[in-house]
Amino acid sequence: MTIARVSVNWTGWPGAPGYTNLYFRDFTEGPINQAIVDGAVLKTDTWLDAWVGSVPQTVSFTVNPTVEEIDETTGTLVNFWTATPDTVRVGGDVGVWSGTSGACVNWYTNGIRNGRRIRGRTFMVPLGQTAYENNGTLAAARLTTLRAANTTLISSTGFGDLGVWSRPSAPGATDGVWYFAEATTMADKAAVLRSRRD
């Protein structure tokens, strides 16, 4: 089977540029097609809209219009698709901020590999001043909004459904596997990102 890789490009922070990758297929288990690609990009855009107010105003991020179709078992690129994402977003938080801290979203699947549950993480970094409480945790109101957006992203509504890709174990291996994201959590604490190129 193949999966669609939707990339979000980030600029305007120390160490930029960077990117976030999200992996989609469809609950119908059919091959990747334009409807799945368009649905995946639409869901990603909607999800990102919820984060704008928490991102510093010097940071911009946008969905790449080129969506890559890859073989889940090998990671081999097999096709390109073109979508029409929203225009570039600019963060809406005007306060001071740290270039390496933000939030970590956990994605849980029902898949098991090597005796462990397959799960993924997406680091949303950096976040601005108003995303935090004065004790260093995430702001309660923002948590409510962002957790709801995360839940919506893994919804089976519409085309394109988010999942977690467990990559091949070594170059040339064919044991890569992808599972649908069945649940999501986001802890009430700041997360530190060391690399944006994963």
Structural class: alpha+beta
N-to-C series of helices and strands? EEHEEEEEEHEEEE
**Biggest sheet overview:** 8 strands, antiparallel
The percent of residues in helical segments reads 10-25%
- Rounded to an integer in angstroms, the radius of gyration calculated over CA atoms is 17 Å
Strand fraction equals: 35-45%
| Total domain count | 1
- Distance between the ends: 22 Å
Short description:
By secondary structure, this protein is of the alpha+beta class.
How would you explain this protein's 3D organization?
This protein is α+β, with helices and mostly antiparallel strands. Helices cover 15% and strands 37% of the residues. The protein contains 2 helices and 12 strands. The protein has helices at 34-49, 140-153; strands spanning 2-11, 18-25, 60-63, 66-71, 77-82, 89-90, 101-113, 116-124, 161-166, 177-180, 183-186, 191-192. Strand 1 (2-11) and strand 2 form a beta hairpin. The model has no long low-confidence stretch (mean pLDDT 93).
Defining traits:
single chain, 2 helices, alpha+beta, 198 residues, globular, eight-stranded antiparallel sheet
Summarize the topology.
Elements: E1 2-11, E2 18-25, H1 34-49, E3 60-63, E4 66-71, E5 77-82, E6 89-90, E7 101-113, E8 116-124, H2 140-153, E9 161-166, E10 177-180, E11 183-186, E12 191-192
Antiparallel strand pairs: 1-2, 1-3, 1-4, 2-9, 3-6, 4-5, 7-8, 7-11, 7-12, 9-10
